[in-house]
């Protein structure tokens, strides 16, 4: 297992955000995490990305204990994420947003930037080239010099994924990537997630409310309700699980 | 190496200025103003690192200026004595100025580290209060030390100020060569820092700390470094003010009160937070406006007015003009004159950018 969660629990005051959650995400998988609002999905993401540390249990990524690590360290070992409410560096340009995420790979030091050495110029150029290539993947290259805040919502979401991809992650966490998207955009997103996985040798874990996207893109789904696991399986299994239908999918969700 | 050639040219001009400025500008008060403008640029550039780029609201910059000024004054005085006293020569300044300013930067930087630590937990108003408290502590510790005591602190002269070892006056070693040279260097360093990976990282941190951490920026490290860099720069600026030729041979705690911080913050906000060009222009405007208001106050009309209204406080006039200027600017351009943008003097930067976008 690339990512292994064992008995992970987290309380906020008296609220049990997640309780005794265990599952593993195999390498190369597109893994869905679903559940009604307040089920603890984002908290789980925050545990994996180091924003909060678990009260009990452990989260391991390639054997490393994530609970003991800071977000920046977790980013460095290959976990990248996006956020439910897009978090961009608004006043920075689109390409700068990506460049910030390439700093971990920088070899020259700040002193080289002050002296503007040849090595610094060469590295800046190659970092910028990589960033522009990534922008092209997400069809944002024309907006490279625009301020991030000036982008349309859909582009902002794509920029956030592009930025996460600059870390060359092994595991990509997507927090509601389809939020605010229409059916067509959702379908494009599904294709894109699969394409990213295949092209960049990724493992993807996503939290999503859009069942169409989850069912179409995920190979394995884990269902949370009130912080606890209620089901785990393939999309087909989940779709027919009585507890899932009762607590979440309901009658309105088309299967 | 285009930049190396540029640096040499700047050096030559600064060197020339050191020997000829007295003749080019015979009025010492004008010379003083020009040098002061340079020092203030360094003040604004250094404050811009923490307030503009890192987005931490510090209102304690005067504390770092004070530390730098006193350290530089003490070092300059003692090195001067050790060299046998006598005349202030250019040859000697080659030893005295680097030594005083390096130590000023070191001490201020160390305090920047200490003040930077709370910035990890505090933000906004709370951090502002901590930095303000720090600056006031520095000022008051110096001001209230009793002159009669034999402690090292008392030797700083308390409220009256420090006038060099044995009260001989601070040797004013930093001529135009140093002041202009260091200012040019400071602009180059500030610019390159902003454009560096580190600069991008702290600007990203300012925009969104959680997202910055998620892409590998260590917030603790970045913020503390920003504080240290800003404080060290403030130390150098304070040192420049203390040992500047045509300046006063005494440093006093009252020069580093809240007014000094307020001026520095105004320079940065006026020019545009985060903009290096803005810091340069903002500091120029503030320095010149202070002088302009002084001149205005000396005019017959204002003097006549003061004669008829005894309660008229001339200093209040300056504050009123300042306030009006700021309010107008904040209405017209809430992000300052430049926002975070820059004036690019060298077309190479533009061409680089265009090339890389096309590539």
Task: Looking at this protein, list some descriptive labels.
heterodimer; A: 255 residues; Rossmann fold; 6-stranded mixed β-sheet; 4-stranded antiparallel β-sheet; 10 strands; 23% strand; globular; B: 359 residues; mainly alpha; disordered C terminus
CATH superfamily (homologous) name of the largest domain in chain A: P-loop containing nucleotide triphosphate hydrolases
* Helix-strand topology string of chain A: EEEHEEHEHHHHEHEHEEHH
CATH architecture of the largest domain in chain A: 3-Layer(aba) Sandwich
The CATH topology assignment of the largest domain in chain A is Rossmann fold
Question: Could you tell me the radius of gyration of chain A in angstroms?
Answer: 19 Å
Largest sheet of chain B: none
CATH class of the largest domain in chain A: Alpha Beta
Query: What is the overall number of helices of chain A?
Result: 10
Q: Please tell me the overall pLDDT of chain A.
A: 91
Quaternary structure annotation? heterodimer
Going by helix content, strand content and strand pairing, the class of chain A is alpha/beta
Low-confidence stretches of chain B: 354-359
Q: Helicity of chain B, in percent?
A: over 70%
Structurally, the number of domains of chain B stands at 1
**Tally of domains of chain A:** 2
Largest sheet of chain A: 6 strands, mixed
């Amino acid at each position: 297992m690339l990512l292994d969660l064992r008995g992970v629990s987290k309380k906020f005051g008296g609220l049990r955000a997640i309780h005794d959650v265990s599952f593993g995400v195999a390498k190369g998988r597109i893994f869905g995490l679903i559940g009604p609002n307040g089920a603890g999905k984002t908290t789980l993401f925050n545990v994996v990305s180091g924003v909060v540390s678990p009260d009990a249990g452990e989260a391991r990524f390639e054997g490393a204990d994530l609970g003991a690590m800071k977000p920046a360290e977790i980013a460095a070992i290959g976990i990248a994420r996006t956020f439910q409410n897009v978090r961009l560096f608004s006043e920075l340009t689109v390409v700068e947003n990506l460049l910030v995420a390439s700093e971990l790979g920088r070899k020259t030091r700040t002193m080289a930037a002050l002296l503007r050495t040849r090595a610094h110029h060469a590295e800046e150029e190659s970092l910028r080239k990589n960033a522009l290539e990534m922008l092209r993947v997400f069809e944002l290259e024309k907006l490279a010099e625009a301020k991030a805040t000036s982008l349309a919502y859909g582009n902002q979401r794509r920029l956030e994924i592009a930025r996460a991809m600059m870390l060359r992650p092994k595991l990509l966490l997507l927090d509601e990537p389809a939020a605010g998207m229409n059916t067509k955009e959702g379908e494009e997103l599904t294709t894109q997630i699969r394409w990213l996985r295949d092209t960049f040798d990724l493992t993807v874990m996503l939290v999503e409310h859009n069942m169409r996207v989850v069912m179409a893109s995920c190979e394995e789904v884990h269902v949370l309700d009130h912080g606890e696991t209620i089901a785990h399986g393939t999309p087909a299994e989940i779709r027919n699980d009585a507890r899932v239908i009762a607590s979440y999918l309901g009658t309105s969700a088309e299967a | 190496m285009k930049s190396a050639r540029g640096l040499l040219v700047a050096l030559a001009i600064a060197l020339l200025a050191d020997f000829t400025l007295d003749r080019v500008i015979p009025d010492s008060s004008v010379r003083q103003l020009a040098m002061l403008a340079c020092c203030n640029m360094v003040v604004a550039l250094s404050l811009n690192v923490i307030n503009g780029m890192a987005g931490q609201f510090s209102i304690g910059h005067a504390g770092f200026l004070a530390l730098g000024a006193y350290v530089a004054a003490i070092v300059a005085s003692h090195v001067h004595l050790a060299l046998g006293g006598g005349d202030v020569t250019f040859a000697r300044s080659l030893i005295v100025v680097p030594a005083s300013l390096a130590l000023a930067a070191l001490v201020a930087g160390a305090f920047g580290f200490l003040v930077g630590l709370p910035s990890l937990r505090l933000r906004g108003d709370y951090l502002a209060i901590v930095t303000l408290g720090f600056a006031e502590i520095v000022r008051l510790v110096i001001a209230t030390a009793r002159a009669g005591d034999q402690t090292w602190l008392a030797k700083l002269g308390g409220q009256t100020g420090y006038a060099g070892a044995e009260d001989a006056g601070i040797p004013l070693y930093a001529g135009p060569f140093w002041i202009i040279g260091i200012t040019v260097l400071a602009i180059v360093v500030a610019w390159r820092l902003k454009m560096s990976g580190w600069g991008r990282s702290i600007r990203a941190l300012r925009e969104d700390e959680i997202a910055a951490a998620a892409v590998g920026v260590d917030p603790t490290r970045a913020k503390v470094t920003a504080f240290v860099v800003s404080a060290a720069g403030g130390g150098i600026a304070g040192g420049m003010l203390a040992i500047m030729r045509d300046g006063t041979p005494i440093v006093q705690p009252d020069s580093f009160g809240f007014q000094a911080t307020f001026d520095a913050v105004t320079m940065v906000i006026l020019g545009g937070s985060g903009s290096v060009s803005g810091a340069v222009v903002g500091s120029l405007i503030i320095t010149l406006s202070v002088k302009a208001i002084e001149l205005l106050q000396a005019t017959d009309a204002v003097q006549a007015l003061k004669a008829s209204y005894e309660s008229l406080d001339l200093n209040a006039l300056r504050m009123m003009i300042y306030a009006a200027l700021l309010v107008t600017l904040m209405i017209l351009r809430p992000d300052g004159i430049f926002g975070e943008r820059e004036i690019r003097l060298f077309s190479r930067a533009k061409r680089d950018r265009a090339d890389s976008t096309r590539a």
